[in-house]
Q: What sequence folds into this?
């Protein structure tokens, strides 16, 4: 038995580390159980993020004006955006966001390196 | 730091193994008590008086049932979300005195809330969003509406013992460890601290009931309206993980009520017979009160549910906190 009195940052780090360790342990256990037991029976469903009147009305309402205009005037851009970002699959959204954030991270690293080199 | 002791605390006691067993036992007790109150039998056949029924359910879901996959589902992300919701609660057990390795620091109430409220909720939300479906999204929107009211209530209720024990000179200040070890003294300290603790306890029970999604706050699941709400699409391992996460949350909530409001095993020591008996008794009392509330009410509408939590949870906790502050100033 022991009580460790520390500062809040150390405690947060230890508890976060513990949480990650547990997540890895439980996930490994679950992965070893789950394999080859998935089925794809049943209906597929698309849950649209667009409001209904973009699809139904000829002229969209004020609230849906932006997407209404994009959909009508830049059909191709709309299709690309919908297929890439807005497919409803969370994995694709994570992929998309990771791609952009990695690009930003890379750019910021390059800027820092250039700045360090100049100075 | 003692690494083997840390690993023991995280994995065996009071970590994964112990809290999972306690959670499954709590589920059995809660189901059995509810059934008896409603003149049903409850779990009866698996093990003595059905005590290992929740374990049997878990094993069946894990090993026998298959996961239903659809085009827009992300099983891996759903699993990780649910596992985060489980592990965040187990990790925050290290801050309670039940753990052989106790972590304490000044202001660690914030760390506790960060794991118990924030990470747990984020895990559940990630898991729910990984299986999109109209019912799931409707359930999730209700769940988030409830969380917005419940989490501040829990935070304020927990702040009452933390504030009062720090005022009494316990070190480290504003820590869960202090609140857990000294909270029994607050009931006898002064009339003001007694009133503050009563108000905190009431609001904690109401808020916990809503956080756990038990009746009358099972609004996100609402079978007759939303099939199963935010868990409609879950089956197999995912449903097993969700059920385990829910049970662990139930056990952990009863445990923090037993420690932070009812005083845990104190004034006896943890390893004494009287201490263990007292802790078990307080744990069972907390669990029983949650069960009695669950069995006595029907489901409310979302707006009614939110108003009830506001009226009987948030407002008492604010008044309790103000009284605690008065005690502090006097």
A:
């Amino acid at each position: 038995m022991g009580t460790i009195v520390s500062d809040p940052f150390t405690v947060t780090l230890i508890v976060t580390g513990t949480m990650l360790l547990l997540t890895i342990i439980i996930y490994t256990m679950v992965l070893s159980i789950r394999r080859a037991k998935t089925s794809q029976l049943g209906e597929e469903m698309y849950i649209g993020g667009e409001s209904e009147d973009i699809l139904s009305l000829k002229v969209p309402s004020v609230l849906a004006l932006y997407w209404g205009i994009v959909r009508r005037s830049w059909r191709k851009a709309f299709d690309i955006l919908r297929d890439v970002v807005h497919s409803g699959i969370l994995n694709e959204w994570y992929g998309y966001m990771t791609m952009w954030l990695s690009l930003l991270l890379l750019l910021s690293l390059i800027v820092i390196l250039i700045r360090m080199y100049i100075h | 730091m003692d690494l083997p002791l840390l690993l023991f605390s995280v994995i065996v006691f009071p970590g994964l193994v112990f809290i999972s067993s306690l959670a499954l036992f709590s589920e059995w007790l809660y189901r059995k008590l509810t059934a008896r109150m409603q003149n049903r039998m409850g779990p009866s056949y698996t093990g003595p008086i059905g005590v290992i029924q929740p374990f049997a359910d878990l094993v069946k879901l894990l090993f026998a049932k298959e996961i239903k996959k659809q085009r827009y589902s992300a099983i891996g992300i759903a699993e990780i979300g649910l596992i985060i919701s489980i592990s965040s609660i187990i990790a925050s057990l290290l801050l309670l005195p039940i753990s052989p390795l106790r972590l304490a620091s000044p202001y660690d109430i914030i760390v506790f809330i960060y794991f118990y409220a924030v990470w747990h909720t984020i895990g559940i939300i990630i898991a729910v969003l990984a299986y999109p479906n109209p019912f799931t999204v409707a359930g999730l929107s209700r769940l988030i509406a409830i969380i917005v009211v419940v989490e501040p209530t829990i935070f304020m209720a927990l702040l009452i013992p933390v504030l009062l024990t720090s005022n009494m000179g316990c070190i480290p200040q504003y820590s869960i460890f202090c609140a857990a070890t000294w909270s029994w003294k607050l009931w006898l300290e002064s009339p003001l601290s007694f009133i503050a603790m009563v108000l905190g306890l009431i609001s904690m029970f109401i808020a916990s009931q809503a956080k756990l999604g038990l009746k009358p706050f099972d609004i996100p699941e609402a079978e007759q309206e939303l099939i199963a709400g935010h868990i409609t699409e879950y089956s197999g391992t995912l449903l097993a993980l969700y059920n385990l996460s829910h049970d662990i949350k139930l056990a952990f909530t009863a445990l923090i009520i037993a420690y932070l409001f009812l005083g845990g095993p104190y004034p006896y020591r943890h390893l004494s017979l009287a201490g263990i008996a007292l802790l078990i008794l307080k744990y069972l009392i907390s669990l029983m009160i949650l069960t009695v509330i669950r069995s006595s009410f029907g489901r409310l509408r979302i707006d009614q549910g939110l108003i009830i939590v506001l009226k009987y949870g948030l407002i008492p906790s604010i008044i309790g906190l103000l009284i605690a502050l008065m005690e502090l100033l006097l």
